[in-house]
Write a structure and sequence with these properties.
Radius of gyration: 24 Å
Structural class: alpha/beta
Strand order of the largest sheet: 8-9-10-11-12-13-14
Distance between the termini: 69 Å
Largest sheet: 7 strands, parallel
Number of helices: 19
Bound molecules: zinc ion
Shape: elongated
Number of strands: 14
Strand content: 5-15%
Length: 468
């Protein structure tokens, strides 16, 4: 069954195109918002139409944007289906905003390689999971999958790099690179950039306004990767609002090969469904001691995620916090306070000798609540001075610090920590990868990150601050 891509349907509904206009758009390969954005950025004739420009500015909100976590779920499921049913496809990769680890994703793209793209496209059209093929050509299929349009691009090996590069976006970056050269087909992105006289930029950095300038200065450091992460210092269990038992979380983290983890349930008065009393903290300590034998080679730090109360004190006595291996502190509840009082609370926690990490510092909820409006520079500087790590939280609802803020934080000399803040064992790896993607958007390098270091160095970082 052939439907109509969302973009064309909306442009028709808005009476911005008729039959002839639609044919012209299809001829130019403009089937998605990303295509339209790129055509406008390139100044291509058909898209230079003022009405289409306006539509490109308005339509994203209607395009069913989803969080990065949901986008990865959808894309992973579809890639899995392609891998199983379409053996002709090689090097299947998510492209577009999901590849750049944007917190909110508008538009799904998958790129793959095949010796004969037309044949591969035919096999995609026969997929049981593709409920509807909205468009197909010899190298492209627009597929409806779980209610979302997925743009599948299939390239011959010699074109693969160019297709991956242009679909990754964003449009302004693609045009800026191509204007310097690299318009011929290339097998790899590295060749696209090399022809433009640039080192290859990681996808997550391509939204940065100064990405090309940094590339021109050869200032593209090796950014932190998932493989650099030696531990995860923030996760929850059924002792607070986690879905899985302490035992399951420990086993799952051990299976990921971590050298260390921290168990950090919520303090008693946090706004979570279930929190830790002092008694339960004691029981948890004993249970962790018993479970250590089941996770050989992995250190288990006993910690807590303690709320920063409205007066800036912590939701747990120092005498109790002192007995823990690591203390994370969080501004979960704004308590009706504003841009003056909130940073004061945060700074009080940063100056507390027992607090080693501030979790999701801006307390943003992706797509629902912007981060607190605070003087972040003061927070980054205080964190750097006191030896307190600022978290890049990989939970898809948080992704906080954001890439932009993480970049400013490390520039101010602060150490960051990338955590999963996981509440279920099966998401430990995924949320760590999202945290790493967010850090890479902030040009964060392994040396900036606490948990790329050995456990002895992590313990020393904590001890140094405690010793004052
Ligand atoms: Zn939290
Ligand atoms: Zn948490």
């Amino acid at each position: 069954m052939i439907g109509l891509p969302f973009l064309l349907r909306r442009l028709r509904e808005l009476r911005l195109v008729g039959d002839a206009g639609e044919r012209a758009l299809v001829r130019e390969g403009i089937l998605t918002l990303a295509d339209l954005d790129l055509a406008i950025a390139e100044g291509r004739a058909v898209a230079a139409d003022a009405a289409l420009r306006r539509a490109a500015g308005v339509l994203p909100a209607e395009y069913r944007p989803v969080t990065l976590g949901r986008a990865w779920d959808i894309l992973d499921a579809f890639i899995d289906s392609l891998t199983r049913h379409c053996p002709a496809l090689q090097a299947i990769e998510a492209s577009g905003p999901a590849r750049r680890a944007e917190p909110i994703v508008t538009g799904f793209v998958i790129v793959a390689r095949a010796a004969d793209p037309a044949l591969a496209i035919e096999s995609i059209s026969a997929l049981p999971t593709a409920s509807n093929i909205l468009y197909r050509s010899g190298s492209r299929a627009l597929v409806l999958f779980e209610g979302h349009e997925i743009d599948v691009r299939v390239a011959t090996p010699g074109f693969y790099g160019s297709v991956l590069f242009t679909t990754t976006g964003p449009a302004a970056h693609v045009v800026a690179v191509l204007e310097r050269g690299g318009r011929q087909p290339y097998a790899s992105e590295t060749e696209v950039y090399a022809t433009a006289g640039l080192p290859c930029l990681p996808p997550e950095t391509r939204d940065a306004a100064d990405a090309i300038d940094r590339a021109l200065r050869r200032d593209v450091p090796a950014l932190v990767r998932r493989e650099d992460m030696r531990g995860d210092l923030h996760m929850h269990t059924t002792y607070s609002d986690g879905r899985d038992s302490l035992r399951r979380m420990i086993h799952a983290a051990h299976a990921l090969g971590y050298e260390y983890i921290a168990i950090t349930d919520h303090s008693e008065h946090a706004g979570a469904a279930h929190t830790l009393t002092d008694d339960e903290l004691g029981r948890q300590r004993d249970e962790i001691a018993d479970l250590r034998a089941q996770a050989p080679g992995m250190a288990i730090l006993h910690g807590i995620e303690v709320d920063i109360l409205p007066d800036g004190t912590l939701d747990c006595d120092d005498a109790v916090l002192e007995t823990l291996d690591i203390v994370l502190a969080s501004l979960h509840d704004a308590a009706g306070q504003d841009g003056d009082q909130l940073p004061r609370r945060c700074l009080a926690a940063i100056r507390h000798p027992l607090v080693s990490v501030i979790t999701h510092p801006a307390n943003q909820l992706v797509g629902r609540r912007p981060g607190y409006d605070m003087d972040y520079l003061a927070i980054y500087q205080a964190a750097a001075e006191t030896g307190t790590a600022l978290e890049i939280d990989g939970a898809p609802t948080h992704l906080d610090l954001s890439g932009e803020r993480a970049r400013e934080a490390v520039r101010a000399g602060a150490t960051v920590v990338i955590d999963s803040d996981c509440h279920r064992s099966r998401s430990l790896d995924r949320q760590m990868r999202m945290g790493v993607g967010t850090a890479r958007r902030g040009w964060v390098e392994p040396r900036h990150v606490l948990n790329t270091r050995a456990v002895g160095d992590v313990r020393a970082f904590i001890a140094r601050k405690r010793a004052g």
